[in-house]
Amino acid sequence: MIQLEGVTKAYQMGKLTMPVLHGIDLAIGDGEMVAIMGPSGSGKTTLMNILGCLDVPTSGRYLLDGTDVSRLSDRRLAKLRSRKIGFVFQSFNLVSRTSAIRNVELPLIYAGVRSRRNPARRALEQVGLGDWQKHLPNELSGGQQQRVAIARALINDPAILLADEPTGNLDTTSSAEIMKLLGELNDAGRTVVIITHEEEIARHAKRVMRMRDGCIVSDEMQPRPSPVSA
Questions:
Q1: Domains of the chain and any CATH numbers
Q2: Does pLDDT of 4 surpass 60?
């Protein structure tokens, strides 16, 4: 599903070149659940942006489901991103004056899809919020808001869920509930990639990669905790 070959990324800061990623080789198979860990400055956010087709490598290749991302125009890249990847962010990114179901509909609105209500309703039901469709974000708990954000990420039926610090704004109980939900979505066949700096969150993944100074320094499989221990 995801394959990086010798990927580097550098940013130009005036006359200076700032290298961030150094020859990343990475393969994530269809249906895996992977946590990418690292301290601030390790390069994990830059790697996330490349995996999410929000940025492109300076050199090397990124193959997403067999498509060489680096060869795509911005328009084709955006189309591939909307079709293949659902994003879940730490800050939820919900529209405050819009109902839960309307927030979930937003990707379909931007895509010009007319029949939106039933898919949005099904997505909310999938994350356990079928009875909260008309509520505004400020009428929902943090965990519920993140569930709305996950429903929105699912609306285009993406093969990959890319979650950037998905529990960063949540308490311990809500964090466990969100990680259980992501685990269930993975068990149903979706590839889930989590960017995190928290060991407690990473242990929910089946595979943990650790980054430092723009390099992957370890890549290990691990057993995922049972729902009881979560």
A1: 31-44+80-221 (3.40.50.300)
A2: yes
